[in-house]
Every structure is written in structure tokens, then in C-alpha cells.
Design goal:
Strand order of the largest sheet: 6-11-10-9-8-7
CATH class of the largest domain: Alpha Beta
CATH architecture of the largest domain: Alpha-Beta Barrel
Number of domains: 2
Strand content: 15-25%
Number of helices: 11
Distance between the termini: 30 Å
Radius of gyration: 23 Å
Structural class: alpha/beta
Shape: elongated
Number of strands: 12
């Protein structure tokens, strides 16, 4: 369990307890009662967050947990994905936090799979952005992978991405690129361009990747022809589910889709309690 996940779980449980106890469970459930918790999908989708949900259950003392599917599994509605056995009060304490992880991350995986399936047949890969929930980035990017997508950098230190404001601050795109190469000769460098003229200028510097910012599909076709395979190209900005295939068919290598993480609808998953064990 990573420090980030353990911190998120501790915060979530602390929010639920707020220094007290689960009043309803303590009032209605005998202290030593045990039961079985069945995590069941209410809608079809792609599962992600299984390990996070298991860690939530372990955190509250539920050790007997069985995963019935793995992250990346495509399931139908009414599919049993996780089963836990233990103290009923502790199961219900974990319920909402475990479901929050499962529903949100499965929603991202499901949305990602929609985009990946849409561009199937092209060489284009669907890639996420840093438009993630604070503290959840590693989890959300793992959910993107579960859905068949590809990750962009996890943090600002993983790779350099020279954007328009960096270019303004540095005095030009070539100047910015030169500064980065001198600062760290080995780091991967991506450069954002807004026009074909900028693309032509930066090609000579041989960056690892070029981001085509808010270019139309027609301009992307021209950019692909101009790059002629010298560097990988990523289209970003103005890309929707309605036009994604058109962009993918231009020949770019990646589509940057912030919606995978910032706009995905949670997958409906519930917990059904069984007594009598």
C-alpha cells in the first residue's frame, strides 16, 4: 500500500467518524455480529480500484476479502466483483469509502475504454492529462491504464513539457528548449506548438514529442505530413468524443483527453449485506 493511498483511506475514515463512532451501526448492530459483504455492479462497465477497496477493508480490520475480478475487467450489471467477511459494524464503516474508490475509479476506466474503442483501428493512443483530483493522481492514472489508455507524466519532474507560458518567459521556443536540454540533457522533452510555423521551427531541435495545441483535424494532417515521422505528435485541446476519431485518423500518435479523469461518470456499484454466517 502506497503512502498516498494509506493517507487517503485514513482521511476518508476520519471524515466519517469525525472523532466519534458510527451511531447508527452501534445502535442497531450487536458488537460481535459478523456478516458477508457482496460488492455488486449495478451497471455495465470496466472495473478499477479493487486493490484500493481491499485496503479500505483491511484498514478497518476486515481481513477475509476475496476479489472476484481484476482491474481492467469488463463486466455486466449484477456482477459480483468483491466479497468480504467479518464484523458487520466494521464492514459498514468501510462501505462508503470502499465504494467511493471503486465507483470513481471504475468510472474512469469505463470512460477510457469508450475512447479507446472509438479509435480502435488507428495507430492513435488515448492519453490522460494532469487534470486529476488532488491526491488521487496515481489512482486515477492507474484507472486510465485499466481502461486501455496511456499515461502522460505523473508529475512535473517526470518529463519536460514546454508550453506557451514557458516560451513567453524564456523569450522563444528554441530558447526554452535549449534551457531545458542544458538543465537536464537526459529528460524527455515535449514542446507545445500552436501553428505549423512553430512546428517547422521546433522540428530542427528534435524534441521527443510535439503537442499540437488546439489545431483542427485539417491542420493536424498537415502537421503529420510536415513531421514526416521525425517525432511523435500529440493532439490536444478541443477534442471531444464526437470528433476524436477524426483526429485519430489524421495520423497523430496520441490524443490528450482531460475528460478521462475530470469528467468521467462514476460506475454504479453497491454493497449487499448477507447475514447468518
Amino acid at each position: 500500500m502506497t503512502y498516498e493511498l494509506s493517507t487517503l483511506i485514513a482521511l476518508a475514515i476520519a471524515e466519517d467518524l469525525a472523532g466519534g463512532v458510527d451511531v447508527t451501526s452501534h445502535a442497531t448492530i450487536p458488537e460481535h455480529q459478523e456478516s458477508i459483504a457482496l460488492f455488486v455492479t449495478r451497471a455495465a462497465g470496466v472495473i478499477a480500484g479493487i486493490s484500493a477497496a481491499i485496503e479500505v477493508l483491511h484498514y478497518v480490520g476486515i481481513e477475509k476479502v476475496e476479489a472476484l475480478v481484476t482491474d481492467g475487467t469488463k463486466v455486466e450489471a449484477h456482477t459480483l466483483i468483491l466479497k468480504a467477511t467479518g464484523n458487520t459494524r466494521q464492514i459498514l464503516l468501510a462501505e462508503r469509502t470502499a465504494l467511493n474508490f471503486l465507483t470513481h475509479l471504475s468510472g474512469i476506466a469505463t470512460e477510457t475504454r469508450r475512447w479507446v474503442d472509438l479509435v480502435s483501428g488507428t495507430k492513435c493512443l488515448i492519453r490522460d492529462t494532469r487534470k486529476t483530483t488532488p491526491g488521487w493522481r496515481a489512482l486515477e492514472k492507474a484507472a486510465v491504464r485499466a481502461g486501455g489508455g496511456t499515461n502522460h507524466r505523473l508529475s512535473l519532474s517526470d518529463a519536460a513539457l514546454i508550453k506557451d507560458n514557458h516560451i513567453v518567459a524564456a523569450g522563444g521556443v528554441l530558447e526554452a528548449f535549449d534551457f531545458v536540454r542544458k538543465y537536464d540533457p537526459d529528460i524527455s522533452v515535449e514542446v507545445e506548438v500552436d501553428t505549423l510555423d512553430q512546428l517547422h521551427v521546433i522540428l530542427a531541435a528534435k524534441p521527443d514529442l510535439i503537442l499540437l495545441d488546439n489545431m483542427s483535424p485539417a491542420l493536424c494532417i498537415e502537421a503529420v505530413a510536415l513531421a514526416a515521422g521525425q517525432v511523435k505528435l500529440e493532439a490536444s485541446g478541443g477534442i471531444t468524443f464526437a470528433n476524436a476519431l477524426e483526429y485519430a485518423e489524421t495520423g497523430v500518435d496520441y490524443l490528450a483527453v482531460g475528460a478521462l479523469t475530470h469528467s468521467a461518470k462514476s460506475l454504479d456499484i453497491g454493497l449487499d449485506l448477507m447475514m447468518g454466517i
